[in-house]
Each structure stands twice: as C-alpha cells, then as structure tokens.
Amino acid sequence: MNKPTLAIIVPCYNEELCITSTVETLLKLLDLLIQKDKIKKDSYLYLVDDGSADGTWEIINKLHQKDGRVKALKFIRNFGNQKALTAGLEGVRNIGCDCAVSIDADLQQDENAIEKFIDEYMKGADIVSGIRNDRKTDSFFKKITALMFYKTMNILGAKIPPNHSDYRLVSKKALDIMELYPEKYLFLRGFFNELGLKTTYVNFDVKPRLAGESKFNFMSLMALALNGITSYSVVPLRFVTVLGFFMALFGFLVGVETVIEKIFWHNSPNGWATSIILLCVFGGIQLFCLGLIGEYVGQVFREVKARPRYIKDIELK
Ligand code: UDP
Ligand code: MG
User: Fold this and answer.
1) Separation of first and last alpha carbons in the chain
2) pLDDT at position 269, please?
3) Residue 316 φ/ψ, nearest 5 degrees
4) C-alpha–C-alpha distance, residues 90 and 88, integer Å
5) CA-based Rg of the chain, rounded to a whole angstrom?
6) Angle, CA 6 vertex, CA 162 and CA 35 arms, to 5°
7) Among residues 314, 316, 312, 310, which one has the least CA distance to residue 81?
8) I need a labelling partner for 3 at 20 to 30 A (CA). Which of 67, 124, 260, 294 fits?
9) What is the distance between the alpha carbons of residues 255 and 253, in angstroms, rounded to a whole number?
10) Residue 13 alpha carbon to ligand 2 centre in Å
11) CB 104 less than 6 A from any atom of ligand 1
C-alpha cells in the first residue's frame, strides 16, 4: 500500500486558549511523520469552528495565512461536536485524502498515537479506534455515567468498546460509505463500528485539558447519550412493548384475584399500601415508556424535517 495523505480533523468551539499551540503541535507531528516517510507531503489539518463566540476564528485565519496546510471551516452557529466532526469528515473527503484522524482541540488525546493509527492503516485497517487507557482526568460522575452509557449501548447491540472516544482514523473507503447515509443525525461511534470494515484498536493516554474549560455539561452529555441510543437502536421500543404485555398480564391476574376475593371471602379493604405502591410503580413505568417513545418520535421529527445537518459560513482551503 502507498503511504497515505493524512487529514487531521479538529473540532473547535471557543478554543482560543488552546488552538495556537494545538496547531503548532500537530504541524510538527505532520513534519515528523513526513520525515519518517509514513505520510505524504500534502497531508494537512482541517479545523472546524463550531460557531465559536470568542476569537477562535480570527486565530485560525492567521494560522491559515502562515501555513497553507491549516485548512478550516466555520459554521454559522454552534451545531455541537458531532456535527462538527461530521462536517470535518465530509470536508476532508471533498478536499481529498486517503485517511482522516479526528482529535479534540484541547489535545487531551495523546497525539503521538496517530503514528500507531497510520501503522495499523498500512496493515490494512479501514478504521482504527483510539481506546483510552484510563479516565484519570474525568470526574467520578462522568466515569460512572460513561460506563452506564457503554453498558446500555452494548446491551442494545451496538458493540462499542468502553472508553472508546471520537479519536479515530477512518479510511477514504469509510468516508465514501458515509456519504451513502442520508440521515441527518449520525452517531459516529456507533456508525463506524457497524459498517463491518476492518477495525483495529490502539490504546492512548489521556492528558488534562491544555487550557480553557470543558465544553460539555450534564445536559449536552445526556443529549449525546439519548441521541446515540435512539438514532442507533429500536431495541428500547421493543422492550416497552414486552414490558407493557407483562404488566397487562400481571394487572389481569391481580384483577381476577381481587374479584374472587370479593365474591367468596368478602374481605376487601386491607391493602391500602399495596394500591399506593402499585399506582406509583405503574405510573412511573408508564411515564418512562411514554418518554422513551417520545424520544423516538423526536428523532423521527428531526429526520423528517430534513433540515441541513449544519450550515457552512466560510471555508478556507
Ligand atoms: N466541541 C465542539 N462543539 C461543541 C462542544 C465541543 O466542536 O458544541 C469540541 C471542543 O472544542 C473540543 C471537543 O469538541 O475540541 C471536545 O470537547 P471538550 O474537550 O470540551 O470535551 P471533554 O474533553 O471535556 O469531553
Ligand atoms: Mg476535552
């Protein structure tokens, strides 16, 4: 196999404190890989400014003027990290590359693992996923919720390894397949795992954030998890159906029992507590199931409107 043209995609949202040093580091890495004869000279960076409100875009502009290998795209407003990544993947496919790696702007993921990604690519892998060595830098809460999410996804049939992140290499072939998927919301971690292309894994270390703050809060992580699940799997809906069936059966049996008791033993009242408990439990389950179905209705609603995934403002090629 020929050595590839590599595109490194960096989603940036209010990253003015990180972006200069990140770009310097990544350009040095490109130079190093070119020197080692692992990638072609026309390899480049592709920064996606996800509608930053700070000076991120001005800085990117300067970096582009200084070095033509810094290419960039600016969204008209904030669309979220998954959309920025999707735009990055589509953007580098249009510009042209043999493989693309996505990495966070705060360089929390060890950029030196990219060399190992390339080695795996040269051995024939179409997708190389980065797996975090540990989650030392994450809060206890994030660790627990992340674990719950990956467990749920695995039960639902998405074989995403835990501690997988959006740090991965994908080949041109995978990018071409992505174009065939018309859906507006692509949960990239599930999507690339499902394609059936040759996939390998590389471990990497997680570092503390370079500067600035995490752009994710509880609500945005929750949205990512729910969108991930509902855009990917309908198993929860089937679960609701099965649960509903058994609940109905249970209700029917309890009903029969009550009637028999009333007719033959005439000792009805008792069991106030039981009624309250059943009321609450059934009420809760019903609300949960309704909410679950609502999530899918929402997903259908978003897809049916067929709005653009994101809106480009400026592109620097
Ligand atoms: N990001 C983005 N759009 C958003 C939120 C985040 O493009 O709406 C980018 C952000 O600039 C960074 C990456 O996604 O490059 C990961 O974000 P962050 O480091 O804040 O997340 P964490 O590492 O805390 O999970
Ligand atoms: Mg980060």
Assistant:
1) 27
2) 67
3) -105, 110
4) 5
5) 25
6) 115
7) 310
8) 67
9) 5
10) 11
11) yes
Ligand 1 in reach of 105 Cβ (< 6 A): yes
The pLDDT assigned to 59 comes to 96
Q: Are 194 and 158 in contact (CB under 8 A)?
A: yes
Is the Cβ atom of 84 under 6 angstroms away from ligand 1? yes
Kindly identify the ligand whose nearest atom is closest to the C-alpha of 165: 1
Phi, psi at 145, each rounded to 5°: -65, -35
Amino acid at 207: K
* CA dist list (Å): 53 to 57, 88, 256, 316: 9, 19, 64, 19
The pick from 216, 227, 309 for probing ligand 1's pocket by mutation, whose C-beta has the most ligand atoms within 8 angstroms, reads 216
Instruction: Give me the average pLDDT of each 10-residue run along the chain (317 residues).
Output: 93 94 95 94 96 94 94 95 94 96 93 94 94 78 83 76 84 94 86 89 86 81 84 83 86 82 74 78 86 88 86 90
* Strand, coil or helix: 10: strand
The finding on whether 13 has its CB within 6 A of some atom of ligand 1 is yes
The letter for the amino acid at 277 is I
Residue 108 is given by DSSP the state: -
The whole-number pLDDT of residue 268 equals 65
Contact 240, 169 (CB under 8 A): no
DSSP 278: H
Q: What is the CATH number of domain 6-217+310-316?
A: 3.90.550.10
pLDDT, residue 267, reads 66
Return the closest-CA partner of residue 170 out of 133, 132, 204, 198: 198
What spacing in Å lies between the alpha carbon of 109 and ligand 2's midpoint? 8
From the CB of 11, is ligand 1 less than 6 Å away? yes
DSSP SS3 for 284: helix
- At 302 the pLDDT is 83
Q: Whole-angstrom Cα distance, residue 132 to residue 203?
A: 6
